[in-house]
Amino acid sequence: MQRTVDAVWRIESARLIAGLARMVHDIGVAEDLAQDALVAAMEQWPESGVPENPGAWLMAVGKRRAIDQFRRQERLERKVGQLGRDLEFQQPNVEDELVDAIDDDIGDDLLRLIFTACHPVLSVEARVALTLRLLGGLSTDEIARAFLVPETTVAQRIVRAKRTLAARKVEFELPRGEDRTARMGSVLEVIYLIFNEGYAATAGKDWVRPALCEDALRLGRILAGLAPADAEVHGLVALLEIQASRLRARVGAAGEPVLLLDQNRALWDRLLIRRGLAALERAESLAAAQTDTSSSEASGQVPCGGRGPYTLQAAIAACHARAVVPEATDWVRIAALYAALMQVAPSPVVELNRAVALGMAFGPEVGLQAVDELAAEQTLQSYHLLPSVRGDLLVKLGRKEEARAEFERAASLTRNERERTLLLDRAAACHPGLHDHQHLADDGKFNG
């Protein structure tokens, strides 16, 4: 029964909290009410059985708990008028009106919850933790284990996030116009960060954490359903679908990292690739319909076609997905797409990825020159992929001793144990007389 309750909670918790938050206008209170409903389910379902509509059952209990709370606060008369006086006497198994209650405006409720959990007044870490808790249905312990931080740290982030939202009087509402566009960027960033941590773990013993990727992909798909006309939402989903298609191939039998050019492409999930390419087509179509690119084309710049950073990254991932063998990869197009990405989302990490593409398209000398131009970039001084990429290019140029030093430096900078082992192995392979191995710095984290 515990597993059943857990499964129901994962499916229904976001909608439950969203619906309750719309009524009580406080995310912290809404989550407490939802947790009360969960406790009631664990107490009653073993005896009564799981109801036909468990979401409606949980919503009914949550609403009754809200009414009880308002009564204790001596505000029953005003609040019951808002919630509907008839709900006070309904039982969980009386579902006719309750089904309507949980479904009414549920799309808007979920969007409100997403925008509130990802509000810019919160730190990035708090947004990630709160989103996984409220929308992903993860426990504090699960979030802590996923990000390799103490459970108390996650708990404090969540508590502080709720207090900040309450203190700043953040409304549980759908932002409009420019505010919505700005806030959507924060939402997409949170989902992207969750996926990235699963796709290329920052620290710990595991190279990938598929469960985090699955959580991010599920959130992205939900958001795409709630915001069907937003090009960048579909661009993000396209990126995640295509990247997720490679998860099985990114890890060897012993859990070791397998980089892009060495992966068995037969292991790539073709269904996820098809889904990703379809989402990319939709994103590009929406972007083209919303933006006139004639001015950028006339200026001689690389035309973005109105595409945002996630759609451009998805287009890059699609170049890899369409290549049946590594040699078929269109590196010239990838380099051009990175140049376009630099226009809309400039960053040293994007420039580093562009340098990799230039090296593959036009030779390691060109790539090394581009990398060396980034050597003084302060934000890359502790970024392990800078020396890793440089080492790769030096190997291809036959400068093994220099490459060995770069791989050793990269190994000293990474906090992921699997990646450190890989880099040290590559350093050892640079000793004279050992067989050369050509690798490409994997495209795990586009924007760091």
From TrEMBL:
Classification via PROSITE patterns: SIGMA70_ECF
Know the name of this protein?
A: RNA polymerase sigma factor
PANTHER family to which the protein is assigned, alphabetical: BLL0085 PROTEIN, BLL6612 PROTEIN-RELATED
> Domain DUF6596: where?
183-283
Q: Which GO terms describe its biological process?
A: DNA-templated transcription initiation; response to stress
Domain called RNA polymerase sigma-70 region: residue spans: 16-75
Species classification:
Bacteria, Bacillati, Actinomycetota, Actinomycetes, Jiangellales
The species is Phytoactinopolyspora halotolerans
Keywords, alphabetical: DNA-binding, Sigma factor, Transcription, Transcription regulation
